[in-house]
Amino acid sequence: NPSIKFLDNKKIRILGLRTYFDFDGSIIPSYKLKKKRQRINKKLYFYYQIQFECDINIAETNPNIASELSALCDTLGIKSVIKKDRRNWSGLYGIRIYQLESIIKFLELGGPLTNVKISSKSKRLQGITKKAVCNSTLNMLKRGIRKSYHFKDYSTAHSEKERLNAALIKELVEEGKKVR
Q1: How many other β-carbons are positioned within 10 Å of the β-carbon of residue 23?
Q2: C-alpha span between 44 and 35 (Å, rounded)
């Protein structure tokens, strides 16, 4: 069975994780809109929340390696979960790094090792380097961007989400031009 257990010291584990991200990783920072409900004094209230999320994924369908990648993240203090995907032979997609603290910790490790560009699968970020997206996302998080907004009506929430995502993409593209 394939294995990555030979990554035995911390520097090597970090390089191993960054290399895996370089080849099979994706980063998707975006604002997402969700309908929420809250019960106050037995009355149910609905509202819309826009929340900043950053999906960091590493594709790996081999169950042994996916499990070892998740364990590798654990040894570095990064929370991850193995994601399932029935379309793949193993039923796995790979791993997803979650929780904002873990996302920041991963980004502080440096993200990808090379200046690999994001593929055409991403209509929003195609041609920008993963490194630029990682650096820009980390900079935004460290300077304290607002991560959550609340609205009573859908149309206001939706237009604000579109505005926030357009501003986010603009910043990522600007950062990408600096790195190229």
Answers
A1: 12
A2: 13
Radius of gyration over alpha carbons of the chain, in Å? 18
Query: What span, in angstroms and rounded, lies between the C-alpha atoms of 129 and 115?
Result: 6
pLDDT per residue as tens digits for the range 67-99: 999 999 999 999 999 998 888 888 788 999 989
Per-residue pLDDT, averaged over 36-65, amounts to 92
Residues whose CB is less than 8 angstroms from the CB of residue 23 and which lie 6 or more positions away in sequence, other chains included: 116
150: which strand partners?
49
How many residues in the chain? 180
Is 179 exposed, middle or buried, given 0-12, 13-18 or 19+ CB atoms closer than 10 A? middle
Tokens of 135: 């650096």
C-alpha dist (Å) from residue 162 to 122, 133, 157:
17, 19, 9
pTM: 0.84
Q: Which two tokens stand for residue 97?
A: 């790094």
